[in-house]
Every structure is written in structure tokens, then in C-alpha cells.
Design a protein that fits this description.
Oligomer: single chain
Number of helices: 10
Radius of gyration: 23 Å
Number of domains: 2
């Protein structure tokens, strides 16, 4: 609640690149429930770490700080994205409540996959590469990598889809909540960004499922599995480049819209009766 109060004070400064005016000025019961769920998710991150029993274990916990910070940053990003949505639109209708419930459910389900992936990327793998131990093999095998990434990207695609639907719903309610022309443009632009992230997540899910199927149908990691393994990152990279081009195009369109709205109206024609 304190964080929301602090961000509410700084919303105007934080959104200087957008044209939204604050509509959700009060913390509703839906936002309060969301705060509780995000707080519980962060608690799950904390209790997932083993409490040190000796001084040596306590001093060796420094390498676990980065995975915790990364996991916390992911949850904080989602909390801030939801906070911005409620501040901008102040919607509390049935569709917003349902979508918020789905979002919070996905967040709780994604806590452990996020922590696991962060630990593997920033703790176990670097230590295994530097020291040459078998900690990485003990944590995850190469055959299980697609399954873990599939679990992670499912949560990523689900969260992106929910936010895309939230902004799509806000765009349909523009007349009710009084969105200006520029606010409506920004709403649809944000919706497209979340849609692009959803598509990226779905493509990653398809890549992981292809890897799993290829691994099940081949006796060894032959050329089929290797080809599928290499194609996935290339497809995701191509989609990210296409998304960057689309964002630049949206930026040009927004600047043109701002210029047209700021242009003074021309002289009224003189009607001679």
C-alpha cells in the first residue's frame, strides 16, 4: 500500500512520455487484493531459499542474491504494469475483475519457474562453468531444458495475453472513461506491444514442444533435434527485430498525431450571405 501511495505521487513524472491522465486515484478492493497476492508471491520467493545453518552457508549465500533480485524484478515489473493500468483507466467492471483474477493466478503459478530459471542462469550455470563441477547436471539435464523453458514461457505468454486483453478492453471503453484521441492511440499502441510479447511467448512454447517431440522420437540428439534447437532462437530474434521496426513506426505515427493535435486551427471561413 505504501508503494502504491509513493507511485501515485510520481505517476505524472514517470509517464511524461505518455498522455494519460490519472483516473484511478483511490486504491480499490481489487487493487488491495492484487497487492496482497503480489506480496504473497514475493514471500514465496523468500521462503524458497534455504535458511543457512552455519556461518559458511551464510557467507556462501552471496551468489544466490542475483537470482532473487532477478525474480523480484520480474514480479515488481508485473506489479508496476498493473499499477499503471489501474491509474490510467480506473476500470473495475466484470471483465477487468476476471482478467485480473487470471493474471494473479498466473503470477502465483509462475513464481517457482521464474526463480528456478533465474537460479539456473545466474547461479548454477556460471558456477559450473567456472569451477567445472556437476552442479548443473544435478539441477537440470539437457533433455529437461525444453520442458523448463516451456513452463516459463507459458507463464510469460499468459501474462502478456492478459495485459493485452486488459488494454484492448480499455480501448473499447474509451467513450465511457473519456479517453482523448492521443490516450486512445497510446492505449492501442501498448496493446500491440503486449500482443507482440504474447506472440513471442507462443513461438517459444511451440519451439519447446518441437524440441520435446523431437527428443522423444529420436534415439540420439541427431540433426533433427539440433536443427530444431537452432531454429527457435533465430525465429525469436527475427520476431524481436520486426517488433522493433513496428515500435519505430508507432513512434512516427504518434509524433505525427501530436503535431496535428498541437497545430492551431485554421481561420474559419467567412460566409457571405
Amino acid at each position: 500500500m505504501l508503494l502504491r501511495a509513493l507511485f501515485a505521487r510520481d505517476t505524472a513524472q514517470a509517464d511524461t512520455d505518455l498522455a494519460f491522465r490519472s483516473r484511478g486515484t483511490e486504491v480499490s478492493r481489487l487493487e488491495g487484493f492484487s497487492d496482497a497476492v503480489f506480496g504473497f508471491a514475493i514471500t514465496l520467493l523468500v521462503i524458497s531459499s534455504k535458511v543457512p545453518d552455519t556461518t559458511g552457508e551464510l557467507l556462501s549465500m552471496w551468489h544466490a542474491i542475483i537470482p532473487f533480485v532477478v525474480s523480484f524484478a520480474v514480479l515488481f515489473f508485473l506489479w508496476r504494469a498493473q499499477f499503471d493500468f489501474f491509474r490510467r483507466y480506473g476500470l473495475e467492471d466484470r471483465r477487468t475483475i476476471r482478467l485480473t483474477g487470471v493474471l494473479l493466478g498466473i503470477v502465483l503459478l509462475a513464481v517457482y519457474p521464474v526463480r528456478f530459471v533465474a537460479t539456473a542462469m545466474f547461479d548454477v550455470v556460471p558456477v559450473a562453468l567456472l569451477r567445472g563441477n556437476d552442479s548443473m547436471k544435478a539441477m537440470i539435464t539437457i533433455a529437461d531444458v525444453p520442458k523448463v523453458i516451456l513452463l516459463y514461457t507459458t507463464g510469460f505468454a499468459g501474462v502478456s495475453f492478459v495485459f493485452m486483453r486488459l488494454y484492448a478492453h480499455a480501448a473499447t471503453q474509451h467513450a465511457v472513461i473519456g479517453l482523448s484521441e492521443l490516450e486512445l492511440f497510446d492505449t492501442r499502441a501498448i496493446q500491440r506491444r503486449w500482443l507482440a510479447m504474447t506472440i513471442s511467448g507462443v513461438m517459444m512454447m511451440a519451439w519447446c514442444m518441437l524440441l520435446i517431440v523431437a527428443g522423444m522420437r529420436t534415439a540420439k540428439r541427431d540433426i533433427v533435434w539440433t536443427t530444431v534447437y537452432m531454429i527457435g532462437p533465430l525465429v525469436v530474434l527475427a520476431m524481436n527485430l520486426a517488433q522493433r521496426r513496428a515500435l519505430r513506426r508507432l513512434g512516427r505515427e504518434r509524433r505525427a498525431l501530436v503535431a496535428s493535435l498541437a497545430a492551431p486551427a485554421g481561420p474559419r471561413p467567412v460566409v457571405i450571405s
